[in-house]
Write a structure and sequence with these properties.
There is one protein chain. By secondary structure, the protein is of the alpha/beta class. Helix content is 37%, strand content 18%. The chain is built from eleven helices and ten strands. The strands form two sheets. It has a six-stranded mixed sheet with strand order 1-2-10-7-8-9. A four-stranded parallel sheet has the order 5-4-3-6. Helix 1 crosses helix 2, helix 1 crosses helix 6 and helix 6 packs across helix 7. The two termini are 33 Å apart.
Amino acid sequence: MLIKEDLITQPLMRGAGHRVDVLRLDLIHPEVSGNKWFKLKLNLKEAKRQNKKTLLTFGGAYSNHIAATAFAAYELGFKSIGVIRGEAPSQFNDTLSTAKERGMNLFFVDRENYKHRDDPAFLEVLKEKFGDFYLVPEGGKNTLGMLGCKSIAEAYPDYDYLMCACGTGTTYAGLMLGKLNRQVLIGVNVLKGKNELVEETKQLLSKSGETYNPMIVGNEAMEKNHLEQSCIIDHYAFSGYAAYDKTLIDFKHGFELKHQIPLDYVYTTKLFYAFFDLLEKRKFKKGASVLLIHSGGIQGNEGFEKRYHQKPMR
């Protein structure tokens, strides 16, 4: 195994009738951080079983998944190819520079062609260009990525609520498979739009081959006095994915000063903001225990700060 899964929980607060802890997945590895490892580990095992020599995956220029895949491939002796959304920049950012240093072959495609990343015809073009490879979808979104995340929830059966940020829904789906039926899993969708992750996650779960409670609802969960069903809500997407929002920036800085837990701008800042807002609205049952799952992604902060001219916290 590439990474020793030493899972660390850290108390966040005691009071208001609640016990709240943070699962620090960001601490399991400096480069294959957080949920990225859990989405990769079974894919890496399957690639070895199939005797594949090369991994190919997709992501944006600041992608945590690209960074994690590059390092994991390097450590385990795979070649790696990263198909990057957008035109090649004149100068690589830290994410791309580090991926290249780890041996990843970076292939840039325009945004229109990138939309076809899941099309068999486009994958055939890539095979003609690069030869045989093991495909890891963008963000590790496949059945093995989902099953790899199952073990996270299985390790924490004693909490009433589990909370995570959602981008592709893969981690959320894995947590659904691993949690107990009595546990409520709250997903905070970081994407602005129609909250399509609810149906997408259900579709992913239907391919798992495992028995689970399929009851996942969307924003309607907020209509009740308490959060009673597992749900994915998009009330905290703000301006959208990886977009600048002063309210979130101010919250991030204040949270980090108070709790000494670093957050990333794209996922975990929205997760923790959502938690405190839900707590204020008394959406958790009295006396409930809550586990907030920190999914890592800290490596992407430098790129965000350069893009939006933000000063990093010290």
